[in-house]
Amino acid sequence: MNREIKTPLTKEMAKELRAGDYVTITGTIYTARDAAHKRMIEALDAGEKLPIEIDGNILYYMGPSPAREGRPIGSAGPTTASRMDKYAPRLLDLGLIGMIAKGKRNEAVKEAIMRNGAVYFAAVGGAGALLSQRIKKAEVVAYDDLGAEAIRRLEVENFPVIVVMDSEGNNLYETAVKEYCSEE
């Protein structure tokens, strides 16, 4: 099914999404990769407040290339999600409602997605230049010293993703393989 959503993404909206749905996102999302995730968890461990509001937001696992003249951002393709798996359950428990990346997630992330009514989206790897055209504004909001891995606030318009794991734990990577292998 094709869906259009506007951020912030609510739990009610997330629970309506199903693995395999094609979705376009319009509104604000945030970027964070390995180094930013590590810093956020260190901040939480130290009793500090996170530099962005996690509750109800979507994190895009991405570190852009430098922007060309006249563009808000360079190539903006997804990072492999499993690199954030050790951090994701804690952020989901704090209210993170969505994640965008590429690749499989571990069982702990799946359980946290289901426990929190969240969703995992995939963006097409290798399509960073095309995806960047859907980003209308990009601004570093935390950890500027991390360069490409700094946390950015992105304003996106019709940003294309696919629901890979829904709030019920349905996983497109598993169901698609079973469906494909069952067809002769």
TrEMBL record:
GO molecular function, one term: hydro-lyase activity
Matching Pfam families: Fumerase_C
Domain Fe-S hydro-lyase tartrate dehydratase beta-type catalytic: 5-175
Domain of life: Bacteria
Keywords from the named record: Lyase
UniProt keyword Transmembrane helix, yes or no: no
InterPro entries referenced in this protein's UniProt entry, alphabetically: Fe-S_hydro-lyase_TtdB-typ_cat, Fe-S_hydroAse_TtdB_cat_sf
Protein family per UniProt: Belongs to the class-I fumarase family.
Protein name (record): Fe-S-containing hydro-lyase
Organism the protein comes from: Hominifimenecus microfluidus
